[in-house]
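Hi R.,

Here's the chain you asked about this morning:
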Amino acid sequence: MSHHTPHVKTRGGRKTAVGNVGRPPVSWALPGILFFAVFAIVPLAIAVYLSFCRWDGLNSPTPAGLDNWTRLFKDPEFRQAAWLSLLLTTVSWAFQTPVALLLGVWAAGRQRSRAVLSAVFFIPLLLSTTAIAMLFHALLDPNFGVITEIGPWFGIDPNIMGSSTGALLTVAFVGGWQFMPFHTLIYQGGARQIPEVLYQAAEMDGAGMFRQFFHITLPQLRHTITTSSVLMIVGSLTYFDTVLIMTKGGPGTDTTVLPYLMYRTGFQTYDLGYAAAIATALVVVATALSLILVRFSGFGNMRSTREGM
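And the predicted structure, written out as tokens:
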């Protein structure tokens, strides 16, 4: 019987085993892999299959070849919805990232009020998206909402939801208000992993707070920014319940983003084959944007498991 002997290196007179020592076996990942396969891969495969079919949700799907995809690329409503989804994603990222980054770095500090204020700030993350959308829908009602009282103080039209720009910005704000605490938590964890010795050395060199932030904190959080941005992009591209409750795709079709177009096509006109094609296209767009961000940010080349190390 042969026994496998791990390769041994000598370091300082001591023998150190080199190999997969301490690494858990692949079998530990099986529950996660099975969960992902059942709830992500299988539904995606079904959606891809249905995108090549005609289906009204009642009868059996019938093959349609490339008809749905040909219609997709010629449909002006799809192009508008894709543009609105990208615009909403860009606005959401530009709004949430700086605020979440600054709040996360601040929350990683040692201020006396930090714990209490952080707990209060994280409350929106505990609420459901539906409840938040209904709350803001009531607050922004042009007839009975609070916006009719306080809007004029800030130069805001009480009927802000009646304009295309106002409605889209409102959806981005409401989504940011709910999910910004989540990204703040990510940045807080990343900021706490930055070695304190870097700041101590910077102080000895005479660097102030702003120079430390731009020359130490931001570079050390580059991979955290990438992680947060990928999650933010995927989340923004899949906004649905906020749009459904607050604007119903309006005014007109000015907030009809891809998820809402998919819902309307599938569950109002019962064209589920075309809706599946829209869903598949949405997955492709979200995946492509995420891969591009990871590729050009250098995130894929990261080897350290800790920020700043």
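DSSP finds 14 helices and four strands in the chain.

Let me know if you need anything else.
M.
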